[in-house]
Amino acid sequence: MGVFSRVLGIIVLVFVAFQFIPYGKEKTNPKADKALEIKAPENVMKLFKRSCYDCHSNETKWPWWSYVAPASWSIYDDVINGRKTLNFSTWKNYTLKKQQKLKKEIYRTVAGPMPLPQYIWLHKNAKLTGNEIRTIRDWASDGKGFIKTNVR
Ligand code: HEC
């Protein structure tokens, strides 16, 4: 057996071994009361559902590759941390003050880091156009279209 096939064999074995590591296996969508879900105008909701809900709601669609390690570990982390930071499914559990703060964060992040680039890479249609960013920002700024985000 040549060196190349040995190395390949080891890589395959490691990959197979990864699949037995239990971390991130439990892909759950906690039940949420629809009454607690965020209520935004339909055009805004459509964007949240298309580009944010997989990580920021309890209605995550787990793709097949989210079951394959090592990808599964990082996808699992993104969803758990995403929900922890902002969960549209339980929005009404937040205090008004917290909701205002999150809206500010949404305003700030939609033009840059959100949705996460590794997500867009595999979900091309999650990318927001300039107009869609404006739509979300209008909502997040309560129709003012602009909020200062550097003061917190
Ligand atoms: C692939 C998963 C994923 C998607 C899709 C995604 N997010 Fe996030 N988002 C995260 C994670 C993970 C964090 C938490 C980062 C951390 O731990 O600080 C986060 C954090 C945030 C925060 C908090 C920012 C901060 O600085 O604390 C906001 C606001 C946010 N996301 C909004 C959105 C919006 C709006 C969308 C859709 C346009 C979106 N996200 C799409 C994973 C995602």
Helix content: 40-55%
Radius of gyration: 19 Å
Between the first and last Cα atoms, what is the distance in angstroms?
Answer: 62 Å
Largest sheet: none
Q: Whole-number average pLDDT?
A: 94
Summarize the structure.
With 152 residues, the chain is mainly alpha-helical. Helix content is 50%, strand content 0%.
Note down, in words, how this protein is organized.
With 152 residues, the protein is mostly helical. The chain has one domain. The chain has seven helices and no strands. Helix 5 packs antiparallel against helix 7. The longest helix has 16 residues. The chain is elongated, with a radius of gyration of 19 Å. The mean pLDDT is 94. The site of heme C has 20 residues, from helix 3, helix 4 and helix 5.
Can you give keywords for this protein?
152 residues, mainly alpha, 7 helices, binds heme C
Topology, pairings included?
Blueprint: H1 3-18, H2 42-51, H3 53-56, H4 71-85, H5 96-109, H6 117-122, H7 130-140
Helix pairs in contact: 5-7
The structure holds heme C.
